Amino acid sequence: MRAVVCHEFAPVENLRVEEVPDPVAGKGQVVVDIAASGVNFPDGLLVQGLYQMKPDFPFIPGGEVSGVISSVGEGVTHVQVGQRVIALCMLGGYAEKVSVPATHVLPLPDAISDEEAAALVTAHATAHHALKQRAQIQPGETLLVTGAAGGTGLAAVQIGKAMGATVIAVCSTDEKLALAKQNGADILINYTDQDLKTAIKEATKGKGVDVVYECVGGDTFHACSRSMAWNGRLLVVGFAGGEIPEFPVNLALVKGYSVVGVFWGSFTQHQPQDFAANMQELLGWYLQGKVKVVVDEALPLEQSTQALNKVMQRQVRGKMVLRP
Fold this sequence. Notes:
The protein has helices at 41-47, 114-118, 121-134, 151-162, 174-182, 196-203, 218-225, 250-255, 264-270, 272-288, 304-312, and strands at residues 2-5, 16-19, 29-39, 64-72, 84-88, 97-101, 105-107, 142-146, 166-171, 187-190, 209-214, 228-236, 258-261, 295-300, 319-323. It is α/β, with parallel strands linked by helices. Strands 3, 4, 5, 6, 7, 14 and 15 form a 7-stranded mixed β-sheet that branches. Strands 10-9-8-11-12-13 form a 6-stranded parallel β-sheet, with helices on both faces. The chain has a two-stranded antiparallel ribbon with strand order 1-2.
């Protein structure tokens, strides 16, 4: 089969499509013939050696796919050959086939297309876990989302609205803000032509924000850390801006808010039952039209470098997808 292979930690331009052996379904596993693969910011960090996980070489990046089960291993009874599924694979997604534990696949409703299904899991599930388990956001609270036009930011806007929050979208351009508004944002802040801290103060009438979904880092994080409401929750999701900020802990003491880490990959392993329940709720919201996947572009495997660069440079409106 064809796959995008990483032989060393290096710039994404070093990735190449190669012929590799087809995967085999071992005990408790299934092989999925991939229809589409989601492209995520951590994928770009991973191949450069900048992510928490450091796989052995060579490896195939890609953590979420949609497709059809082509074989099942010993002991697999709850899914079958020919079934459309979403698969969480952690690695191996930038390929034509992938072998995954049968516990990591979800039946895919016919109403959801391959491309949207492949882009649904990581971004939306991260936002869902962050707002539900980590922030425990309540109807009527304010939610501020940074990077609100990117894959996980846009998902947080949608899910925040579905959970009854008033959503403040923070983006770098009016074009991105327009997309956030189309997906449910109530208040729009362009931080390139406004002082972010001042704009947040005005938007919340001086109260501050109840929950911040922060995935940019750097100066954006610092402005948010000074704009929290009493009993607020500042969610640390990622650092798409490239700078991991240092946090002055006295702010949490004086303002009485919590700084809460969000690592969805670890959540799926530590709380598998909660993860499964989240996915059922998320798929239900999708079918009800409360959430949706915005696919910016679908590219072939040979253009994985272009897809990753677009994500890493924060030029994406929604999600990027690869089509084997």
